[in-house]
Amino acid sequence: MPGYAWAQTAAHPARLASVLSAIVLGTLFLAATAVFAATSSAGLRIVAAAPLSAADVIVDRDPEAADPGAGWPEQVAEHPDITATAPLHAGTVQLVTDEIRATANLYSISDRDELRWFELAEGEWPANAAEMVADAPTLDSSGLAVGDTVSLLVGDGETTDMTVVGAADIGFRPLTGVQYQFYTSEDFFAGESPLSVTADIADGTSPEAVVESMGADLPDDLHPMTAEEQSRLAADRFAGGAQQLELILLVFALIALLAAALVIANTFTILLSQRRRDTALLRLVGAERSQVRNLVLAEALIIGSIGSAIGVAAGVGAGYAGASLMELTGGGLHVGVPALAGAFLTGVATTVCAAWFPARKAAGTAPVEALRSAPLQNGVRFRSVHAVGLAAAVTGAAVMVFGMLAENLPVSIAGGSVGAVGLLMALRYAISRLIGGADRLLRLRGGVAELAGANLRRNTGRAATATLTLVLGLGLIAALATAASTGRATIDGDLDDRFPVDVSARVDTGSVPAATVDMVRDIDDLVLVETPRTEQVTVEGLGETTLVGVSPELARAVGAEDLAADGTGAPAMLVSEDQLNALGAAQGETVDLSVDGEAHRFTLYASELATSSGAASPVVREEALDAVAPGDERGMVWGTAAAGADYDALAEQMSRVAGADPAITLSGALAERTGLTDVLDVLVGLSLAMLLVTVVISSLGVANTLSLSVLERTRELALLRVLGLTRGGLRSTLAVEAAVIAVLGALLGLVIGIPYGLVGVNAVVGGTAPLVVAVPWAELTLVLVSALVIAAAATVLPSRRAARIAPAEGLGAD
Q: Could you list the residue ranges forming a coiled coil in this record (predicted)?
């Protein structure tokens, strides 16, 4: 029997090409995930361990305990087995050049050669607090070079000039989320208490023994540990973030395998229908049902093994390439043999399991029925599996909506998963009914369209399975696109509420220089730029604060209608929620406030506009401020962006403004908006790229359905040629069939994917911000267009095969 199975496989390899392609892609995805996980985890361990590689022992202080003071590293140095120590400091500063201002990380580097963990590629080590070295990516992206002098703004607003005296090729980024990394002398952090101290021990001394003795000598809030153990813990912390990405990849790999299983099951169903006479002859010469079934499963085992082996081999390269793109291959290629073996066995098992039901059905066919010359009809009857799927879909949808309303993400995920499985179980029947409806519409057109409808009606089960694979891929893409668009709109809406002003620049004292204001006004994407009046005043209940006066135009532009209204009573004052509570007032209440010792009446409203400058500053109309505290100081610049503005470009231009004027401080929605949407774009882009594999597998299913349909209808097509149907007519028939499958798949994908996307994103952000529904109609239109492109591509090979059928040859075929 195995020999016969191999002979069947070798005799018609083209018929199994889609099975091979589907399992190769699915297994490739799974193996690539395993290789990516192993390689990136090893790379992360190198990243985590690198700063500790020159040390033998690490001593951490408890961040929750009282600060032991800047001199606590001396307690470590006094240990008799310690030969050298280096405190580890880190801080976040603002890098200011002639072109940009951006956030940078500043680390200490040891003054002792033996405790420095990287080598210089150029220049020299920092000798004092005014010198620093940078890694190569920092120099490239900031436009700096060795010898340049830049300004750093530290936490208290103090400006420090620093000279770049060296460059290092570290080989990785510290994964801090900050673009610029600098290293300076320990002198820069003089008087500050480090969080850790690295130490070298005397030759011939065991790190474990030193750690044990130090633990007895040091205070309880200082924790010694070997460098090796600390490196392992740091690697585990880093790897924890990567595991989320690995989980996403694994989920999409399983989805790809599910699509592959649908394609495989459909292919074997068609093949076994075409081989009904072979099956009948086997039964007539004594083959039992189990032998027929095992023959089919043996074929599946052969093709699954070949496809899985190819997929695993290709997945090793793909996984390493993915880790390389993330610059996490410092430890070289790492391949987990058990994981690859698992990917191979999963691919084989998927193929065999997908072929099980077609094999069982073929084995149960009576010989006399299988010997009929006409092909068997293959519709989809409503069975118990469809009823169970429908019930699961309804139940899952209800649970998902409940989780969304209750803002319970695990419940929403569980309900969505149950509902998705139920839909997959029930959809095949529903799709077959829709295909029947499409046939009735095609009959109205007559000609080629009617022929295509008749072909679809003849085997609705086959077409329904091909459509289901498209629903799986295109539905997930629609869900992701909807979730991304709605998530972005929700973020924008939340930021618009919390940051009414898109751009805010302020100075601590005096007015913003006119040159800086002009630079802000020259930014194209800003539709309104204003320099509000500012005065330092003392308000009873609030203490010393900055009172801001704005024009009615700006108030209307940012939605502060209470401030923009021309009232005849007490002037409006916008304050923060905390300030409103501190004053003991209610929203819209008119109160008497003492401002610089004089009583003034204001109607108070809580508004986010009062925190637009980065600190709580009450806002009034400019004429109200003139009445309270006359003056001409304008210590702020506020700007609002045009609808649809490019916030990345706007942020870059404001960075240049800040670089030209180190005295200003930026705030507003730009920084937070850009960071959040960047993360969202990366995740969605990655997910869409992964789902393309599923769509490719789905298109293979459509192409395979049409190809095997051509083989099954050889005599029919030849007869149509004899009756006058042209080759172009044959191609058009197949194109209409493919278009019906693709359009149904796309429409069902949209109908299912859009609600799933909305519910999913609401489950994630529903508790933090009001959901702003934004269906990306343009992108979803592209999904429909893509489905038609898939349909057109799927007809290329089947059309060529159908067009080559000669009438005489086709009529003689069996």
A: none
